[in-house]
Amino acid sequence: MVDILHYIINAAVTALLVIAILRAIPFLHMLQLEGYKNKRFIKWLVTNPAKILIVRPIKEPKKKLVFTARATRLFVLTLFLLAFVAYYFFTLSPLFFVTAILICICVPILLILSNVLIHPLEAVINNLYLKSAKKRLQMLKPKVIAITGSYGKTSTKDFLATILSKRYKVLKTPGSFNTPMGICKVIRGELKPEHEIFIVEMGAKEKGNIKELCDLVRPEIGIITAIGPQHLETFKTMESVVSTKYELIESLPVEGIAVLNNDDENCRNLVKRIKEKEILLYGINRDNKKLHLTAKNISTDSHGIYFQVQNGKALTVPCHCNLLGRHNVYNILAAATVALEFGMSLHEIAEAIKVLEPTPHRLQLIRGAGGVTVIDDAFNANPVGARMALEVLNEFRGGGKKVLVTPGLVELGENEYEENKLLGVAAANVCDFVFLVGPKRTSPIFDGLREAGFPEASVYVERNLNAVTERFKNVLKAGDVVLFENDLPDTYNE
Which end of the chain is more exposed for a tag (fewer CB within 10 A), N or C? Predict the structure, then answer.
């Protein structure tokens, strides 16, 4: 009898452990998406309490769970703790149902505990990676250009790499690799002796993030594209955002070059703080005498942007590229300003501008099925960029319907409701139809649409993008233009 009971206990514990393991995988995925930050993961749990009991794998995730060495170590430790807790709970309570509930609750808690326990080891490993990457950079000695900003940094990076590649061997950080470990991976795996220039995109969600990246790569040229309300949930104030971006300029050597957007008020204010470093300004709307490079006679249509670039010596060169949005002129000017410093002529730069391609998911023009035009701006996540995208949508002519698809904007702290409401007001002045993805998060946009007098019959609220696509069948026709604005991280799935 005792043997049978012992067998039942072991079988039950094993079954519970298997269930717990299956549940641990999606929790690990969410922790990875939150950058292994316990604070962010706990906030997600608090925001989504029901998922503690019913969490399941993300359907068609935008970023799949990657079992990196770190994720594997964390998972193994969590499994060890789960095995111990499962056996302990079962011996404590013979009621299988009670035990099962306790195990369900314990899974995310044990994952957090494992993350705490393994943190010292991860810190040692990360430090070794950082030292190795620094050593390789010091050995190969490429010219390092760093780019940061609330928006425009990825496009500027791509444009600059394309232009400089006409004369130099250039390596850029791919996609949105803008964290210390991501940049380390690029340095250790892709940087070669033949690379003369290394272009690094720098992202930040907290004060000190940019300085940490600068300590790693030691940039000689720093570009700030623009500074606006982004990640206010972690930064709290715009002052904190500005000071964090300024960390790039502070980190430049005395002989370094600071490149700033003179049309951005926050960037202009930073100029007053810069000492003992060369300052290059670009822009469109301000006094040309102060600008190293400017653009004029700008016009746009569905075939791209037409403009003239003028340097401080009044040399003017016509330019055209297959990009959308007046704001891309700023990104091009930032890239061209740096290219001039590398000895390229305006005529060389103009030729390179002709072949510029849009950064994927950033106002990328796609000819869709059935004669529908798609503007893919899924990677934009800030209010200024959203308004710019609506301006681009408004520029389309031809009589077709103008349609917006969006899940709204996030990580804006106390400003989130108001900024999303303003997005709704702006959309009402441009769009014929609006598709809102996620009823809870998009309610402020709906409020803005109502306030602007937009007909509610032209607003569709769907739970996911698949439902939106189905609805398209009854709404879209040839000649219509659809703007996909923002694509929330998996952590915001409703």
Answer: N
Domain with 388 in it: 364-492
Place of tokens 């035990």: 99
pLDDT the model gives residue 48: 72
| Cβ atoms 113, 81 nearer than 8 A | yes
| Residue 358 falls inside a structural domain | no
Task: Please check whether residue 428 is in contact with residue 450, taking contact to mean a CB–CB distance below 8 angstroms.
Answer: no
Q: Where are the alpha helices (DSSP H) in 218-345?
A: 232-235, 238-251, 265-271, 327-341
Strands 364-367 and 373-377: what pairing?
A: antiparallel
Whether 451 is covered by a domain: the verdict is yes
Distance CA 405, CA 453 (A): 19
Contacts of 458 (CB under 8 A, 6+ apart): 431, 432, 433, 434
Same-domain status, 164 and 110? no
pTM over the 0.70 mark = yes
**Range 195-209 average pLDDT:** 89
Instruction: With H, G, I as helix, E, B as strand and everything else as coil, classify residue 305.
Output: strand
Tell me how far apart the alpha carbons of residues 188 and 37 are, in angstroms, rounded to a whole number: 24
Between 347 and 416, the more confident residue is 347
